């Protein structure tokens, strides 16, 4: 979590740092701050709350200088407050640091530094870093940072400036993302590419423990022995507009509407009519696929929900047993995983700490790992054996939408690829599925036509405190996602249940007027779902059914019906999720919530 930026050049640093931070607010927005070298002194301005507060403060008392660092925070250690905001400095304010990650041994380091006469003001783990750097500082900032990092355990991406070396910015990463932007006579550091994209498209994607030094001479990258490292420049090809709202009121709405394109891009060159599926980035062989005894899909949040769909489709098409796990639980249950197991991790950001821990555990046990991720150069993409990129483009809203549908597409692609190699599905069937997949962008476009019905549903349910989402089979997997979306951006409590499970307990919660969203897009299970709907209707529930076009009989049971375009059951999650995304979006607006930046959340959860 948290976003860091840094600037070295010959322009005013403050506006550039603010601009960069505005593109990183999705990583956290509890507080923000900058440290800039002005007339040989480090000047720090920081405060609790959104970036706007920092901007106002800087307008009142500007800082002028051409070297600086900035931070937007998602609180881990220490509540959101001015004093806990970054940058953090040593007492004399000769060293300032911005940090994304967690220093796990900070208590021990703090005690030791305190015994050496250092003083601490905040409750953060980060504050040990400037003090450690100060402890080791003997006139060379790089050397001091290298020594300090040797003492630090945990994860970090840090940017450091020093009063005594005003013409230098040093940065390094370990298990937290960091990129370097290369401009003309200027350079940048940032947690993510959108932060520098308005200034440059040339970036270095840093690896763990690569130290970067920004000076007048340009960008230098060295290892911990100060040996120079040559790196390839990565040219960003996607449009800067992809990270802007482009006329939409919120990123979330824009990203919902980008789904047809994102789906198409994710299928391009992988799903081609009449041709076998070829996955250039996946090196697993036919023999290895045939030998697989188990697939583990591991992920968090929305990505986990895509994994639940993955389990259904891989088992159905490729006939390989699949376990789907919440990443934070996976490693603590001592999973039975070996060289004949495959792990698929799903992570939009490719940085989620729990998911990365699962990946590392699987590799330790000799399993092969495929990463399904949306971020080129992310930790997941670098550490996995194979990568299947979802080409959703940057997803800025905290609530995941286009990343989810492209993760679904990735699950279908992998399932079909395995089925093709294991010959568990006939060529005719494979072709039929592929053809329907190729029609999905159009179907999703059509699914947006439910907008009015969803706005009406929102108006009718805006005062509800609790809701239920029900479904069977793949509808249950989508119900999980619909429920999460509603909770995270409208703060309405909701539960998703497998429709058949309801009568084993939760039905006790159904009373007159309880809102139930029932998903009934799975033809084979339709009648059973309708029976479950009847069970809740007869106990007073107000039911909104989501069904495929043509299934008008749901209107006899449900109070209201919303229709999605007809697609084969297997692919239905891609269209079924659309009304649920829109419902959470309109509900969030109706309740006056912050759609793109819901309370207590951050886009990328890089702490366990
Ligand atoms: O970047 P990741 O896909 O690994 O993130 C996983 C979850 O944190 C994420 O999907 C989260 O649940 C979203 N806020 C849901 O909208």
TrEMBL record:
Gene Ontology terms: biological process: amino sugar biosynthetic process; carbohydrate metabolic process; fructose 6-phosphate metabolic process; protein N-linked glycosylation; UDP-N-acetylglucosamine metabolic process
Keyword Repeat applies: yes
Places the protein is found: Cytoplasm
EC number from the UniProt entry: 2.6.1.16
Active site as annotated: 2 (nucleophile), 603 (for fru-6p isomerization activity)
A cellular-component GO term for this protein: cytosol
Chain's role: Catalyzes the first step in hexosamine metabolism, converting fructose-6P into glucosamine-6P using glutamine as a nitrogen source.
Quaternary structure annotation from Swiss-Prot or TrEMBL: Homodimer.
HAMAP family hit by this protein: GlmS (MF_00164)
Protein name: Glutamine--fructose-6-phosphate aminotransferase [isomerizing]
Organism expressing this protein natively: Clostridium senegalense
Lineage per the UniProt record: Bacteria, Bacillati, Bacillota, Clostridia, Eubacteriales
């Amino acid at each position: 979590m948290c976003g860091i930026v840094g600037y070295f050049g010959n322009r005013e640093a403050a506006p550039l740092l603010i601009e960069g931070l505005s593109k990183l607010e999705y990583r956290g927005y509890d507080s923000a701050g900058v440290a800039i070298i002005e007339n040989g002194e480090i000047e720090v301005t920081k405060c609790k709350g959104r970036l706007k507060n920092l901007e106002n403060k800087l307008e009142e008392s500007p800082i002028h200088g051409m070297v600086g660092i900035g931070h937007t925070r998602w609180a881990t250690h220490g509540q959101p407050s001015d004093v806990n905001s970054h940058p953090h400095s040593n007492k004399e304010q000769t060293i300032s640091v911005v940090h994304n990650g967690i220093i796990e041994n900070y208590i021990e380091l703090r005690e030791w530094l305190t015994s050496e006469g250092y003083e601490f003001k905040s409750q953060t783990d980060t504050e040990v870093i400037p003090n450690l750097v100060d402890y080791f500082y003997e006139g060379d900032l790089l050397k001091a940072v290298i020594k300090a990092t040797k003492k630090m355990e945990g994860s970090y991406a840090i940017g450091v400036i020093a009063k005594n070396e005003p013409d230098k910015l040093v940065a390094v990463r370990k298990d937290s993302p960091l990129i370097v932007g290369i401009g003309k006579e200027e350079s940048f550091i940032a947690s993510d590419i959108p932060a520098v994209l308005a200034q440059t498209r040339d970036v270095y994607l840093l690896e763990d423990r690569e130290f970067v030094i920004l000076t007048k001479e340009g960008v230098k990258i060295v290892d911990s022995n100060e040996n120079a490292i040559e790196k390839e420049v990565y040219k960003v090809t996607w449009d800067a507009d992809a990270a802007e709202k482009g006329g939409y009121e919120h990123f979330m709405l824009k990203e919902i509407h980008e789904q047809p394109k994102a789906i198409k891009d994710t299928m391009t060159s992988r799903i081609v009519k009449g041709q076998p599926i070829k996955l250039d980035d996946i090196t697993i062989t036919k023999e290895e696929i045939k030998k697989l005894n188990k697939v583990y899909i591991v992920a968090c949040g929305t990505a986990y929900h895509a994994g639940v769909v993955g389990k259904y489709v891989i088992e159905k098409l490729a006939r390989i047993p699949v376990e789907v796990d919440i990443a934070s639980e996976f490693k603590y249950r001592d999973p039975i995983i070996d060289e004949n197991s495959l792990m698929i991790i799903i992570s939009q950001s490719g940085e989620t700490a729990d998911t990365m821990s699962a990946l590392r555990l699987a590799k330790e046990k000799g399993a092969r790992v495929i990463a399904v991720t949306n971020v080129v150069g992310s930790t997941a993409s670098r550490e996995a054996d194979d990568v299947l990129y979802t080409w959703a483009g940057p997803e800025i809203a905290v609530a995941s939408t286009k990343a989810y549908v492209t993760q679904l597409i990735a699950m279908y692609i992998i399932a079909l690829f395995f089925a093709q190699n294991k010959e568990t599905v006939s060529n005719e069937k494979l072709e039929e599925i592929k053809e329907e997949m190729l029609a999905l962008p159009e179907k999703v476009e059509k699914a947006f036509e439910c907008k009015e019905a969803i706005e009406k549903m929102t108006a009718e349910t805006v005062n509800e405190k609790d809701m239920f989402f029900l479904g069977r089979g793949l509808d249950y997997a989508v119900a999980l996602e619909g429920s999460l979306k509603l909770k995270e951006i409208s703060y309405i409590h909701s539960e998703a249940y497998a429709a058949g499970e309801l009568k084993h307990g939760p039905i006790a919660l159904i009373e007159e007027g309880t809102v139930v969203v029932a998903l009934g897009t799975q033809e084979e299970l339709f009648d059973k779902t309708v029976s479950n709907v009847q069970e809740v209707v007869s106990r007073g529930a107000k039911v909104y059914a989501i069904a495929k076009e043509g299934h008008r009989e749901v209107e006899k049971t449900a109070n209201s019906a919303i229709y999605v375009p007809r697609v084969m059951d297997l692919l239905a999650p891609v269209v079924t999720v659309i009304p649920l995304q829109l419902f959470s979006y309109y509900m969030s607006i109706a309740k006056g919530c912050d759609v793109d930046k819901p309370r207590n959340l951050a886009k990328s959860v890089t702490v366990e």
